[in-house]
Amino acid sequence: NHVRRLEELCFQDQLTGIGNRHAMGEYIGTMQAERSIGILYCDVMGLKKVNDLNGHREGDKLLIRVGECLKTVFGEYELFRIGGDEFLVLCEGIGEKDLKDRIKLLNAEMRKRNSLMAVGCVWRAENDEDIDRLLKEADERMYEDKRIRYAGVLAKETETNRQNALHFSHL
Fold it and tell me: How far is the CA of 134 from the CAs of 13, 39, 101, 123, 157, in angstroms?
C-alpha cells in the first residue's frame, strides 16, 4: 500500500490527478514508432492574473478545471501536467480527423468550464521522428496560438476602452 502511494507521488500530479513530467518521460520510452501520434502542447491562459487577483486557491481551481477538460476529451490517451501551467497530451494511434474533432470538443469544454488554453498540435501518420523535435514543434505552435489569442483579447480590451472613452467624453 505504501509502495503504491509512493509510485502515485512519483508519477502523478497531485493537484490534477494526471501524469506529471516524470510519468511523461517514462511513457515516451514505451511509444511505438509504427503507430500514428497526435501531440497537444497546452498552456493555461490567464493563470498568473487569476493568482494575482484572486489568490492561488482560485488558480488551483483553474488548473483542476483544465485537467478535467482534458480528461473529458482525451481521457483514454496519455495526459501530463509538465509545468506550472503547461499540459501535454500524447495520443498514440489517433487519426488526424479524430484529433482535430477532439480539439474542437476541447475548446467547447473549456468554454463550459470557464477556462482557456493556447494549444499547439502536431499529428504524424507514423511516430518515426525524434519525439523531442515533435514536442518542440507542438510547443512552437502553442506559442503561436497564444500570441494570436492574446492579440484578440488585447484588441477587444482596446476597443472596449475606446468605446468607454467615447462614452465618457460625451458626458
Answer: 23, 8, 20, 9, 35
Contacts of 50 (CB under 8 A, 6+ apart): 58, 59, 62
pLDDT digits (tens, 9 = 90+) for 73-121: 999 999 999 999 999 999 999 999 999 999 999 999 999 999 999 999 9
CA pair distance 30, 46, nearest whole angstrom: 34
Provide the angle, in degrees to the nearest 10, between the axes of the packed helices 2-11 and 21-28: 90
What's phi and psi for 130, nearest 5 deg? -60, 125
The residues, any chain, with a CB within 8 Å of residue 10's CB and separated by 6 or more, are 22
pLDDT by residue (tens digit) across 17-42?
Answer: 999 999 999 999 999 888 999 999 99
Whether 70 and 89 have beta carbons less than 8 Å apart is answered as yes
Known catalytic residues? 85
Per-residue buried b or exposed e for 34-44, using 16+ beta carbons within 10 Å of the residue's own CB: eebbbbbbbbb
For residues 153 and 20, what is the distance between their CA atoms, to the nearest angstrom?
Answer: 30
Q: What is the pTM for the complete model shown?
A: 0.85
User: What span, in angstroms and rounded, lies between the C-alpha atoms of 161 and 164?
Assistant: 5
Please tell me the distance from the alpha carbon of residue 139 to that of residue 43, in angstroms, as a whole number: 9
